[in-house]
Design brief:
The chain contains 7 helices and 2 strands. The chain is mainly alpha-helical and about 150 residues long. The chain has a two-stranded antiparallel sheet with strand order 1-2. The chain has 2 domains: about 80 residues; about 60 residues, Winged helix-like DNA-binding domain superfamily/Winged helix DNA-binding domain (Arc Repressor Mutant, subunit A).
Length: about 150
């Protein structure tokens, strides 16, 4: 079991090397020699060597594919485990949408009040309702969630 883990660790760390070796083995197995006007297969007298290269290539390709499959599954799992982004944007009122858009633009409360012609207390009420609907606790969290989309 310890040897298997050591081999797997080596394979994961040297994935590019495995890929390169597989390609090299394929080309080595089908190599040709060119003499004057003759073209001959390099392994014409020793076909079993070409067979060995072919078998090694297939083994390396299978290892590479399994590593890729593992890495892809790991990426899928990490995406699935990301915190879910609340899709409650459509539950906001028109005014809350306006406030939300200005918050996303990183406007200050004073700038938002001046642009929408509302009092600070009204703005704070809108912001608190937006936080509740969007399931966030701060302006920074709201902006970060917008960046994920």
């Amino acid at each position: 079991m310890r040897i298997k883990n050591t081999i797997l660790d080596f394979a994961f760390k040297n994935q590019k090397l495995i890929e390169g070796l597989a390609i090299f083995m394929v080309f080595l197995g089908v190599s040709f020699t060119f003499e004057q006007s003759n073209t001959t297969w390099a392994w014409n007298n020793y076909p079993y060597i070409a067979l060995i290269f072919a078998i090694l290539s297939v083994i390396l390709i299978i290892i590479w594919v399994r590593i890729e499959r593992h890495n892809t599954q790991k990426a899928i799992n990490s995406i699935q485990n990301m915190p879910k982004i609340s899709n409650n944007h459509n539950l906001l009122t028109n005014r809350q949408h306006q406030v939300y858009d200005l918050i996303i633009l990183k406007k200050s409360n004073k700038e938002i009040c001046n642009e929408l012609f509302i009092e600070i207390s009204t703005l704070k009420t809108h912001i608190n309702k937006i936080y509740k609907i969007m399931d966030v606790k701060s302006r920074k969290e709201l902006i970060n969630r917008k960046e994920y989309k």
